[in-house]
Specification:
InterPro entries: PDZ, PDZ_6, PDZ_sf, Peptidase_S1_PA, Peptidase_S1C. By secondary structure, the chain is α+β, with helices and mostly antiparallel strands. It folds into four domains: 57 residues, no CATH class; 209 residues, Thrombin, subunit H; 94 residues, Pdz3 Domain; 97 residues, PDZ domain (Pdz3 Domain, Roll), CATH 2.30.42.10. Helix content is 21%, strand content 33%. The protein contains twelve helices and 26 strands. The strands form five sheets. The protein has a six-stranded antiparallel barrel. It has a six-stranded antiparallel β-barrel with strand order 7-8-9-12-11-10. It starts with a helix and ends with a strand.
């Protein structure tokens, strides 16, 4: 059914393009229009009116009906840090976003910022069914998250598939579906306005830009091509109500999915160098014939780039067979590869071409996100001591909240409650060892003997305090 409807839409589009490119109207089963002549011939002129692109496109109802059931509402109850003078429970927040089902087993894609610090996630389908969801994996650097629906009734789920975002052209039609302002299953039409946009949201920015209406609540929802394939995850909007939206390309998501599902996080390759864009002026100053690339400005000691002999002022123009046109393209290309991958760099040094073989290292946690293992900490810590924890979000770190394990909830009557622990506290030490994130704290809980007492140092607003947590026998 979906394939037939998609074919119909494609046929309408091809017909419209053919009409526009020919510059005249020539419907099937009709003779061609008479060629307008001057009044001297005695013939009557006939004006030809071409349909507008919207008219030629026709109704998008069949396409919408074929994919809309797989678009879901994501409702999140998330932890926060209470401000001075407010009760602990006021640090909690609730939010709404969007998502879409990509697998009949209940895999749902959405944005990381929709489910950040989630204590509880509920997903609602168009047909009214509701399911709790667990967070399988998250990648804050690209703002992508993967959920799995839970429950006995997770069956006969509608799904959509990821398409080829690289095949999209600027000017192609796109359709956005989501939950703007809580208005479920809203549909908007637009075009692809630009590709490879860097909006300074992170080191791997490569957004699709669209003028399809995207508003708060659309985050995590799909951006479709006219075949009904998802070519982007709607993620951000330009401020000021300008009607400019951005989506994570589907081809990037395809690369991340296996790691998100199996490992819960993304491990990236790393060169260990600083770079900037090669401009025509810099190329002329360096005596180069190439006009684009990535100039090495620094090489960190002991890193893969240092071991391969890279030096400042080297200009990297190819990674394997992929052209490197900027520092950003180098960062993205390396970041999509796994540590241990061997790559060939083609570069210029003092005007001469060179090649270097580099074995990629593991990108360190430069942003202090510490996401590995976090999706599984909530359940494990809650089962043992009645305590839910998560990593401290980057936005909270920017407000002065220290790194550690953020307490998201405490069960009544639990060991955690008896120890005086409350939501909003941040565990920064356990048994006199630093706690850098939720995974550190859960590891300490796992290794501690039943009946033992853990000495915890916690941050409470602007002060630190000690707590003794007695583990159950």
């Amino acid at each position: 059914m979906k394939a037939r409807m998609s074919s119909r839409v494609s046929a309408l589009l091809l017909a419209a393009l053919a009409l526009v490119s020919c510059g005249k109207e020539s419907p099937p089963n009709e003779s061609k229009p008479e060629v307008p002549a001057s009044s001297e011939t005695g013939h009557t002129s006939r004006e030809v009116t071409l349909p507008s692109p919207i008219e030629a496109l026709g109704s998008l109802a069949p396409l919408t009906e074929s994919v809309r059931a797989a678009v879901v509402n994501v409702e999140v109850r998330a932890s926060g840090v209470p401000r001075r003078g407010t009760p602990p429970w006021q640090g909690e927040r609730r939010g709404l976003g969007s998502g879409f089902i990509i697998d009949p087993t209940g895999l749902v894609l959405t944005n990381n910022h929709v489910v950040e610090n989630a204590v509880e996630i509920q997903v609602q389908l168009l047909d009214g069914r509701q399911f709790p969801a667990e967070l399988l994996g998250t990648d804050p650097l690209t703002d992508v998250a993967l959920l799995r629906l839970r429950g006995q009734n997770v069956k006969e789920l509608p799904v959509v598939k990821l398409g080829d975002s690289d095949a999209m052209r600027v000017g192609d039609w796109v359709l956005a579906i989501g939950n703007p302002f809580g208005l479920a299953s809203s549909v908007s039409l637009g075009i692809l306005s630009a590709k490879a946009r860097d909006i300074q949201a992170g080191p791997y920015d490569d957004f699709l830009q669209t003028d399809a209406a995207i508003n708060p609540g659309n985050s995590g929802g799909p951006l479709f091509n006219m075949k009904g394939e998802v070519i982007g995850i709607n993620t951000a909007i330009a401020g000021g109500g300008t009607g400019i939206g951005f989506a994570v390309p589907s081809n990037l998501v395809q690369v991340l999915l296996p790691q998100l599902e199996k490992e819960g996080a993304v491990t990236r390759g790393w060169l260990g160098l600083g770079a900037q864009d090669l401009t025509p002026a810099l190329a002329e100053a360096l005596g180069l014939t190439v006009r684009s690339g990535a100039i090495v400005v620094s090489v960190e000691e002991g890193t893969p780039s240092a071991k391969a002999g890279l030096e400042p002022d080297d200009v990297i123009v190819f990674l394997n067979e992929k052209p490197i046109t900027s520092a950003g393209s180098l960062t993205r290309a390396v970041g999509l590869m796994r540590p241990g991958t061997e790559v060939r760099l083609e570069l210029y040094r003092e005007g001469k071409k060179h090649e270097r073989q580099v074995t990629l290292g593991t990108r360190p946690d430069l942003e202090g996100l510490a996401t590995r293992g976090v999706p599984h900490t909530e359940e494990e810590s809650q089962q043992r001591v009645g305590l839910g924890v998560s990593d401290v979000a980057p936005r909270l770190s920017a407000q002065g909240v220290p790194r550690g394990a953020l307490i998201t909830n405490v069960l009544p009557g639990s060991a955690a409650e008896r120890a005086g622990l409350m939501p909003g506290m941040v565990v920064v030490e356990a048994n006199q060892k630093p706690v850098r994130g939720a995974a550190d704290f859960v590891r300490t809980l796992r290794e501690a003997a039943p009946g033992s007492v853990l000495l915890l140092r916690v941050q409470v607003e602007d002060t630190r305090a000690l707590r003794a947590l007695t583990l159950p026998d």
